[in-house]
Amino acid sequence: MAKFAAALLVLCLVFVAAVQVPQVQATDVYGDCLRGCLKECMKHNGYTFCEMKCDTDCFNKEIEAKLLSLTSKLPNKN
């Protein structure tokens, strides 16, 4: 029974390795935004303020980009 379980596990691993899950082709909206925002903000403000401000702003931009990406894939109802 142990050999059967081991064989089943190996089969599952081979199957998972062989099947490639489609991945969303997305840019790193959040990371790109955060780097630029922190660099610009810290010229005039402290790190804590900039980190909180940029995190919020860039999170919102990332969500907006994801929603636009999803809605562009919806079929037209016209």
Automatic annotation (TrEMBL):
InterPro entries cross-referenced by the UniProt entry: Pollen_allergen_ole-e-6, Pollen_allergen_ole-e-6_sf
Alphabetically ordered keywords of this record: Signal
Superkingdom of source: Eukaryota
Alphabetized Gene3D superfamilies for the sequence: Pollen allergen ole e 6
A Pfam family annotated for this UniProt entry: Ole_e_6
Signal sequence, renumbered to the chain: 1-26
Stated name of the protein: Major pollen allergen Ole e 6-like
Native organism: Dipteronia dyeriana
Species classification: Eukaryota, Viridiplantae, Streptophyta, Embryophyta, Tracheophyta
